[in-house]
Write a structure and sequence with these properties.
Blueprint: H1 4-18, H2 23-34, E1 42-47, E2 53-57, H3 69-80, E3 89-95, H4 101-106, H5 108-128, E4 138-146, E5 152-161, E6 163-165, E7 172-174, H6 183-203, H7 213-219, H8 222-231, E8 236-238, H9 245-256, E9 266-270, E10 275-282, E11 288-295, H10 296-304, E12 315-319, H11 326-337, E13 364-371, E14 374-379
Antiparallel strand pairs: 1-2, 1-13, 3-5, 3-8, 4-5, 4-12, 6-7, 9-10, 10-11, 13-14
Helix pairs in contact: 1-2, 1-10, 3-9, 5-6
Length: 382
């Protein structure tokens, strides 16, 4: 079965020549092509009995590489399980209108930050209202920028605790079985906050305008642009509560370390015709699974749309789970709930039996190492 690394390696030169890529996206492309290949360096093991040799090459560690996310995901899940409470959790998704996509794409770091800010303030302020919860919850937000067809579709996944710490810190207030915030009110408040901060960015002249004439036409005149956005419906989606905190974190782990498309969705790659086919789910057609075929260059262009700005934090924690005083707040919450911290069994991220020869079951020993970007083998000293 074909995979993203195979596609990018075969098309690398053409991608670099036909798609104008900033440095951090070029680096991502190079990393994916080099991952677990001799280019990354590694070591060679040899069986002490039959002489069989087994090469092992290092991974690239890039957060957009589909090969490198499994181990990172398991480590993240293990760490986050320590921050759970025995209460309900809800999944809330904040989506920006498609009319904003060109502007957001041209100002990713700034407007992704506005998206996080508007969504987090919406949840915290509405939860503080006694009509809704009257407490400070904890929640984790994860940024995704793609849809199933790999087009640009920025949205925020939030896993919200169904309860929170009262303002006097004397009570832990739990929600009912249903989502405790009115979704329409959440949508309206989120829209108001995002557009308020967007106006501030326009007034400070800190935004780059899209170069496309069609996109510029939509933005002008600016007053009409904002009127259209205020009058449109903004989508805020909620799902049913989870049955346990552990399932919440495992579910969230699928979102935190997901890349735009996984290798499992690649159906076929034709290197001669330079076509890529992949599975996608059409939400507008009753979630039917379909197969889309694109030119390999267009497939690469869509994938690389979703490489985040360098150093941008796509996972953020708020409220009780915010980095400031998180440990103390969780201790207090558990005390008020009269529960103890969960006992976490460490994940065993084990590959196939290491140091055992698959041919004769003898022991394998490292005999040579290679350095990154240097294919020369260096024998180990005895």
């Amino acid at each position: 079965m074909s995979n993203i690394q195979e596609i990018f390696t075969a098309m690398k030169d053409q991608i670099l020549s036909e798609i104008p890529l900033p440095f951090h996206k070029q680096k991502t492309l190079e990393s994916i092509c080099s991952c677990r290949t001799p280019e990354m360096g590694g070591f060679i093991e040899q069986c002490i009995d039959c002489g069989e040799t087994v090469p092992h090459f290092h991974s690239c560690g890039n957060r957009h590489c589909p090969v490198c996310q499994g181990a990172q995901q398991a480590k993240w899940i293990e760490k986050q399980l320590n921050n759970t409470l025995p209460v309900q959790y809800f999944h809330v998704v904040f989506t920006l209108p498609s009319e904003l996509n060109p502007l957001v794409f041209s100002n990713q770091e700034i407007l992704y930050g506005v998206l996080f800010k508007a969504a987090s303030e919406t949840i915290l302020e509405m939860c503080a209202n006694k009509k809704n919860l009257g407490a400070q919850p904890g929640f984790t937000s994860v940024l995704h920028t793609w849809g199933q067809n790999l087009q640009f579709h920025p949205h925020l996944h939030c896993i919200v605790m169904g309860g929170g710490l009262s303002s006097d810190k004397l009570h832990f207030v739990q929600s009912s079985k249903k989502f405790f915030l009115p979704v329409k009110a959440v949508s309206k408040k989120f829209k108001g906050k995002f557009l308020h901060y967007l106006k501030q960015k326009f007034q400070s002249e800190s935004l780059y305008l899209p170069k496309s004439e069609a996109d510029l036409a939509f933005l002008q005149p600016r007053l009409n642009f904002f009127d259209k956005l205020y009058s449109s419906d903004w989508v805020v989606y909620t799902k049913k509560p989870f049955d346990s905190a552990e399932n919440v974190i495992r579910y969230l782990g699928r979102y935190t370390h997901r890349v735009a498309i996984s290798d499992s969705r690649i159906v076929d790659f034709d290197p001669i015709a330079k076509k890529v086919s992949f599975q996608w789910k059409d939400y507008k057609d009753n979630n039917k699974k379909k197969v889309m075929t694109l030119d390999a260059i267009e497939f690469a262009r869509r994938f690389l749309l979703h490489v985040l700005p360098r150093g941008f934090m796509k996972i953020r924690h708020y409220g009780i789970l915010g980095n400031r005083n998180r440990k103390d707040k969780l201790i207090l919450c558990r005390k008020l709930l009269r529960v103890v911290a969960p006992i976490i069994q460490p994940f065993n991220i084990q590959e196939t039996a290491k140091n055992i020869c698959k041919v004769c079951s003898g022991l394998l020993y490292v005999v040579m190492r290679t350095h990154r970007h240097n294919p020369i083998l260096y024998p180990l000293r005895c």
